Amino acid sequence: MTPLIECTDVTKRFGDFTALSRLDLTVPQGVVYGYLGPNGAGKSTTIRMLMGLSRPTSGRVRVLGEDPADAGVRSRIGYLPGELRLDERLTIAQTLTSWGRLRGLSDTSYRDELVQRFGVDPARKVRGLSTGNRRKVGLIGAFMARPELLILDEPTNGLDPLMQQVFLEAVEEARGRGQSVLLSSHILSEVERVADLVAVLQGGRLAAAGPTRELRRGAAQRFHVTFADGADVPLVSLAALEGASAVERRLPESQEVSLAWTGSPDPLLRLLAEHRIATLTAPEPDLEDAFLEFYQPDAPDGRTSTGAGA
Ligand SMILES: Nc1ncnc2c1ncn2[C@@H]1O[C@H](COP(=O)(O)OP(=O)(O)OP(=O)(O)O)[C@@H](O)[C@H]1O
């Protein structure tokens, strides 16, 4: 089956500046795809190309199997731009009706349900709406026609936690119906909850891409160890282990040590077994840990230097 989005070796330059470099990206049917990266990484640049709003300098972009410069393709996508421009003179209802007309939407029951769930008053004028309420209108517009592909640029910007929840439910419903959703976000915990696949952009290059579960599995695992009162705290031996990084005592004289670990924990557990331990905890690594590894400023391989020195 043709992927809904396929970018092959895509580069985008603005003058001398390369905003995106040799991007390969594939979004299959029926998945939620998280598009992550720090400010200026190139997320919006990618999304604008997917929507045919700008052209790649080189490489090939296909959306729904077509060139996105084709207006017919665009009208099949539920799109939420990073900066949504609305006609200030209209009410919310008029705005949604005009978008619906453009899409040939005849059954408005899902639209009306979304209006309820997002808690917007359709009679209100767009002028004077808060950022969050504008975002809600944009989201309802993107979801209401149940398009096969949704492309959402920072969709939860300005939404309160309750509305973020409503949004995530709409995303899960869309996936349940076989629609695909590409969403860019800085809110990693939310992407982690909902995305099947993620890509991490850094400085216009893909730093990682793959199933969320695998990325999380590859993340450094944090361990917190409390050595028994009076027992040795083997900081130097811990820091010398190959999988260890950021080995730190909680407080200068404390028996508590935290460290990050990559790879099988066997060598760590063997070393710890030689010592008297009061507690050992290892929280589930999250995407934030995995993600932040990609842009430690002074550690290109993602490892932080060890804090062992005491
Ligand atoms: N039209 C343009 N002309 C020149 N440079 C641009 C243009 N559009 C984007 N850029 C630059 O390209 C880089 C990527 O920008 P982009 O907006 O895609 O990043 P982003 O990942 O979406 O970041 P943010 O989360 O801050 O929106 C930035 O350095 C930006 O300044």
Question: Would you write up a description of this structure?
Answer:
By secondary structure, the chain is of the alpha/beta class. It has two domains: 5-216, 3-Layer(aba) Sandwich (Rossmann fold); 219-293, Alpha-Beta Plaits (2-Layer Sandwich). It is 31% helix and 27% strand. The strands form three sheets. It has a six-stranded mixed β-sheet, with helices on both faces. A hairpin with a 2-residue loop joins β8 (197-202) and β9 (205-211). α4 packs antiparallel against α5 (131-143). The longest helix has 16 residues, at 161-176. Mean pLDDT is 89; it is low at 298-310. Adenosine-5'-triphosphate is lined by residues 14, 17, 19, 37, 39-45, 82.
Low-confidence stretches: 298-310
Give the class-level CATH name of the largest domain: Alpha Beta
CATH topology of the largest domain: Rossmann fold
Distance between the termini: 58 Å
What small molecules are bound in this structure?
A: adenosine-5'-triphosphate
The helicity comes to 25-40%
Strand order of the largest sheet: 5-6-7-3-8-9
**How many DSSP-defined strands?**
13
Number of helices: 11
- Listing every helix as H and every strand as E from the N terminus to the C terminus, the arrangement reads EEEHEHEHHHEHEHEEHEHEEHEH
On the 0 to 100 scale, the average pLDDT is: 89
What Rg, in angstroms, do the CA atoms define?
24 Å
Supply the number of structural domains.
2
Q: Strand portion, in percent? A: 25-35%
User: Which class best fits the helix and strand makeup?
Assistant: alpha/beta
Overall spatial form: elongated
CATH architecture of the largest domain: 3-Layer(aba) Sandwich
At the fourth CATH level, what is the homologous superfamily of the largest domain? Answer: P-loop containing nucleotide triphosphate hydrolases
For the sheet with most strands, the description reads: 6 strands, mixed
